[in-house]
Amino acid sequence: MHTVDVDLGLRSYDIHIDNGLIGRAGTLLSAAMGRTAAVITNSTIAPLYLTALKNSLAAAGFKVFEIVLPDGEQFKTLDTMHVIYDQLLGFGLDRSGFLVALGGGVVGDMTGFAAATFLRGIPFVQIPTTLLAQVDSSVGGKTGVNLPGGKNMVGAFYQPKAVIIDPLVLQTLPERELRAGLAEVIKYGVISDPGFFAFLESNLRAIMRLDTAALASVIVRCCSIKADITSRDEREQGVRAHLNFGHTLGHAVETLTGYADFLHGEAVAIGMCAAAQLAQSLGLCGSADVHRIEGLVERAGLPVAAPQFPAVDYLRVMLKDKKKTGSTVNFVLPHRIGEVALHPVSQDRLRAFLTGNLAMP
Fold first, then answer.
1. Is 354:314 a contact under the CB 8 Å cutoff?
2. Which of 21, 83, 159, 300 is most exposed by smallest CB count within 10 Å?
3. Low-confidence spans in the chain with pLDDT less than 70
4. 264 catalytic, yes or no?
5. 346 lies in which domain range?
6. Is 211 domain-assigned?
């Protein structure tokens, strides 16, 4: 079993990575948690893995409740949070209990937000079941829900007590979801590790075939990068902002399409390509690196072109972004593969780029 430590002092926790860990989750958690668990999952994952997880927890002496939510980004809302709160109250869950997120990024974000706010804070554990969640969203303590006007606009920084990653669950992951997860994988190479980016270029086919060795390397490396960044900057006051590469325009794509047309990773892929093009237009990044980024995104079967909305609509949404400052939008832009920086971009410059480079009116 691979173990990656997220070093946050009293809030430190381990990321456990090994095949078959869902069936051993109860043993992993038995010494560290209270004796009552509420598992939050969705209607897609529940038939696949909920029974195995509940059996593992019950065998370790836990009393187990379950909440099964509808599946989809469109349900990542405050209305769904009310459903969760009501059911937790009905279970009689108190501060000695804990929550378990069994699912992808949507389930993980909502479970974490519920844990941060129910009874003013109870423990929770992440058991991510998508590649995107395993390499990114389950680690680092970002929780929250969407508003109609913006992605993840309500939430909290709240760290899990543990992250349990079972790569075998990816065998049942739809191909589109796997490709979407690769967007976050590619992101880590661009922002931090040119050697890892080159590894992805050479091993992409093996990763997409779910080759055991290649997949383990990817998950461990991404978790290690994010654990290091989170340990240095838990609340995104500095280097953690680099993890938002591709997300500023990507979140705008999700918002403008009503969280229905693009998976999160697909929108991030579009955002990464746009950010690379913007960096090139500003003289920050050479064309060779831009072509490598776009080429790897395309090879992963991900979209590279933004949907056609007027530039003014993109600007309106991005000016509500959590990372904007006044009338400028802060973009994480690549200088080269393995090095990025945060750059404020004015509305006029951004409008000109959107209109000229992405062919928007």
1. yes
2. 83
3. 358-361
4. yes
5. 191-357
6. yes
